[in-house]
Amino acid sequence: MPLPILGALVVLGISGLVFLVHLMGGTKRPTYADEAEATAALLVDYPDADIWRTTLADDGRAALFELASGVGYAAPFGEGRLTRIFQSGDIRLVDDGQDGLTLHLTDYTAPRLSMKIAGADDRAAWQARLNNLGGAK
Asked: How far is the CA of 47 from the CAs of 8, 17, 24, 30, 106, in angstroms?
């Protein structure tokens, strides 16, 4: 078989497989259904966390937690989850965008995390709390 035909068959085959995975929902980003599911995700990694308040992102892709000491963050990530508890000095900057917050962290494994919060009052309250952790502006 000529090489150009073989190359075209390989490209079409891989493209077809990617398209099928997409149709079967393999490219859909995971979300939390409610605050209880997000809270359960944080408690898996931090079972002793004393959660006072939970805010689920408008799109369900993240959650912030007011803790007895610090602030928690959880986001579904593939089949698992990304969870963090921020203490003093963990946050470099908090950006308040039109529809949410972006946290710039000192952690190189997750340098930037975002969360969509439509309510301006909720965004302002979380931004103030995160800024109080120290180091954030």
From this structure: 52, 40, 34, 22, 24
